[in-house]
Amino acid sequence: MAKKSWSDMSPTQKRIVVAVGVAEMALTTWCARDLKDRPKELVRGPKLLWGPVLSVQPLGPIAYLVWGRKR
């Protein structure tokens, strides 16, 4: 299956792409803010490592939420 360019997509497909992008950015922003505000004792591993991990989309923010935070 060949990649579609933006102009080849239907209006519904374009809305889905934009919605997923907005959700991804919101999740990443929320995780970055949580990481910044959370004490280092409540983060698994060094906080400096989690910063770059958050940029790996979409797995970084999900990994932080699942494994990076202590309860």
Structure description:
It is found in: Cell membrane. Residues 27-69 form the Cardiolipin synthase N-terminal domain. Keywords: Cell membrane, Membrane, Transmembrane, Transmembrane helix. Pfam families: PLDc_N (PF13396). The chain is mainly α. The radius of gyration is 16 Å and the shape is elongated. The N and C termini lie far apart (43 Å). The protein is 62% helix and 0% strand. It has one domain (10-68).
| Subunit organisation of the chains | single chain
In total, the number of domains comes to: 1
The ordered H/E elements are HHH
Query: The biggest beta sheet, please?
Result: none
What is the C-alpha radius of gyration, as a whole number of Å? 16 Å
Task: Tell me the number of strands.
Answer: 0
Weakly predicted, low-confidence segments = none
Distance between the termini: 43 Å
Name the structural class: mainly alpha
Mean pLDDT, all residues: 94
Number of helices: 3
Strand content: under 5%
Share of helix, binned: 55-70%
The outline comes out as elongated
What features would you highlight for this structure?
71 residues, mainly alpha, elongated
Q: Care to give the gist of this entry?
A:
By secondary structure, the chain is mainly α.
